[in-house]
Amino acid sequence: MILAIDIGNTNTVIGVFEGDKLLADYRISSDRSRTVDEYGLLLLHLLDYSSMPRGEISGIIISSVVPPLISVFDNMCRKYFNHEPLIVGPGVKTGMSIRYENPKEVGADRIVNAVAGFELYGGPLIIVDFGTATTFCAINAVGDYLGGAIAPGVMISAEALYARAARLPRVELVRPQTVIGRNTVSSMQSGIVYGFAGQVDAIVRRIKGELGADAKVVATGGLAEMIAGESSEIDLVNPYLTLEGLRMIWERNEASAGSW
User: Fold this and answer.
1) What is the spatial distance between Cα 119 and Cα 242, in angstroms, rounded to a whole number?
2) pLDDT (tens digit, 9 = 90+) per residue, 131-150?
3) CATH 3.30.420.40 fits 103-239, yes or no
4) How far apart are CA 4 and CA 252, in angstroms?
């Protein structure tokens, strides 16, 4: 079994794979104050709760956009699972050409998503990831990663609205029944949900224009289902795209190295 770990700014998503089958997945907070032991014991508890045999973990792969947590998870994997994890970064075989001006600037999660997206859906392809930031990634017909756009995430914007406007409350992010809000809460929900759906559609249309082709659009991330339901451009939602990409990258590196 393979353990796939994606460390994001807000949440860390963990998946357990047997072959290409996702057996279990977990979402925990990316807390920089947690120690190696705290993360290790938390992960062991989650595996035990799901009846996952921890002794059958044969490899671990990690992607991270939070540099301080890379060493924490690296040491955790060595101490609690006796495995040196494969960390997605320069030198790791992805099978994808990166056409960014400086490939080292591209977040590991964006590359992982692109690998999975092109493998599953082909190209041209646009991936919208609703994380702490909302990212847009463009892959051409032959599978080259071209770049994309980065916008403030849904939760960041909602929190900023609450923090900077004295009379506006913190609201639950749910789809409002109408665009015209009849109270402050529903007005804020309308602005956030439909505003981000409109942003997604506008940026995707512009990316399609530059790609010069009718690209398929896939969404992923924690709020993908809600926003995709109000978008006219998103074709499908895959909440496990990043975990699938990590599995694929693990397999490509295992195949090229013979074994880990």
Assistant:
1) 12
2) 889 999 999 999 999 999 99
3) yes
4) 14
- If we measure between CA atoms, which residue out of 164, 193, 162 comes closest to residue 177? 193
Angle at 9 between CA 8 and CA 14, to 5 degrees: 25
The pLDDT confidence band at residue 215, using thresholds 50, 70 and 90, is very high
Hey, which residues are catalytic here? Answer: 109
Dihedral angle over CA of 163, 165, 166, 172, nearest 10: -60
What is the helix (H) or strand (E) element at residue 47, kind and residue range?
helix 36-49
What pLDDT does 249 receive? 97
Which residues make Cβ contacts (< 8 Å) with residue 45, sequence separation at least 6? Answer: none
The domains spanning 2-87 and 103-239 adopt the same CATH topology: yes
Question: Pick from 28, 131, 7: which is nearest to 71 by CA?
Answer: 7
Listed by start position, the domains of the chain span 2-87, 103-239
Cα angle at 71 between 69 and 72, to 5 degrees?
60
Rg (CA), the chain: 19
Task: Decide: 167 and 161 in contact? Cβ < 8 Å.
Answer: no
Q: Closest by alpha carbon to 117, among 202, 212, 218? A: 218
| Cβ-contact 15, 220 below 8 angstroms | no
CATH top-level class of 2-87: alpha beta
Cα–Cα dist 235/68, whole Å:
35
